[in-house]
């Protein structure tokens, strides 16, 4: 637990001085600790209870982590709202994840029951806001997945992925509005 707290303090620039105590209010930390308990129960083959705990943590934090997911050390989930981690996902050490990240499957028509259906994320990967990684793909170590990226194939170690950025629509400026009429 101390290692998790240290990871949050190191990677969140909002935590400094007396504000460090706010780390205990971070939903990502609560979701991570709840997952660790649920994962132990899942591995011990307790029925129903691990999934119930994960759903309670989802209700409290807005972060859904399936009890079967394997999460490494020092995961940092910043803000956390809308994060979803699927059952067979594997997350390495020192991964940083922002809100609305999905590590999901491709759907019941493509994913066989009992197969690995979710991504494997290497050590020190950063997953930007809204990044979606679907299927049994592998994200290599130290890769950076940019905001709003959709990843459906393997990403090599150290790669930087980015989604197209928004651009200004021509004739959208107020001074041009009168010219259109």
TrEMBL record:
<keyword id="KW-0198">Cysteine biosynthesis</keyword>
<dbReference type="GO" id="GO:0005737">
    <property type="term" value="C:cytoplasm"/>
</dbReference>
<dbReference type="GO" id="GO:0009001">
    <property type="term" value="F:serine O-acetyltransferase activity"/>
</dbReference>
<keyword id="KW-0677">Repeat</keyword>
<dbReference type="InterPro" id="IPR053376">
    <property type="entry name" value="Serine_acetyltransferase"/>
</dbReference>
<dbReference type="InterPro" id="IPR045304">
    <property type="entry name" value="LbH_SAT"/>
</dbReference>
<keyword id="KW-0808">Transferase</keyword>
<dbReference type="GO" id="GO:0006535">
    <property type="term" value="P:cysteine biosynthetic process from serine"/>
</dbReference>
<dbReference type="InterPro" id="IPR042122">
    <property type="entry name" value="Ser_AcTrfase_N_sf"/>
</dbReference>
<dbReference type="InterPro" id="IPR011004">
    <property type="entry name" value="Trimer_LpxA-like_sf"/>
</dbReference>
<comment type="pathway">
    <text>Amino-acid biosynthesis; L-cysteine biosynthesis; L-cysteine from L-serine: step 1/2.</text>
</comment>
<keyword id="KW-0028">Amino-acid biosynthesis</keyword>
<comment type="similarity">
    <text>Belongs to the transferase hexapeptide repeat family.</text>
</comment>
<dbReference type="InterPro" id="IPR005881">
    <property type="entry name" value="Ser_O-AcTrfase"/>
</dbReference>
<dbReference type="InterPro" id="IPR018357">
    <property type="entry name" value="Hexapep_transf_CS"/>
</dbReference>
<protein>
    <recommendedName>
        <fullName>Serine acetyltransferase</fullName>
        <ecNumber>2.3.1.30</ecNumber>
    </recommendedName>
</protein>
<keyword id="KW-0012">Acyltransferase</keyword>
């Amino acid at each position: 637990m101390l290692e998790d707290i240290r990871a949050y303090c190191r990677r969140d620039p909002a935590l400094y001085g007396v504000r460090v105590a706010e780390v205990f209010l971070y939903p990502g930390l609560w979701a991570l600790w709840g997952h660790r308990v649920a994962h132990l129960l899942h591995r011990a083959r307790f029925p129903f209870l691990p999934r119930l705990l994960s759903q309670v943590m989802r209700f409290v934090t807005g972060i859904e982590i399936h009890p079967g997911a394997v999460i490494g050390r020092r995961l940092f989930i910043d803000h956390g709202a809308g994060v979803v981690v699927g059952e067979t996902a594997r997350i390495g050490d020192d991964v940083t994840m922002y809100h609305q990240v999905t590590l999901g499957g491709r759907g019941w028509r493509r994913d066989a029951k009992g197969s690995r259906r979710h991504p494997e994320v290497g050590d020190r990967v950063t997953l930007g806001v809204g990044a979606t990684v679907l299927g049994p793909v592998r994200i290599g170590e130290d890769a950076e997945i940019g905001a709003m990226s959709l990843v459906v194939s393997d990403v090599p170690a150290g790669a930087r992925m980015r989604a197209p950025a928004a651009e200004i629509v021509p004739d959208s400026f107020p001074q041009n509005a009168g010219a259109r009429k």
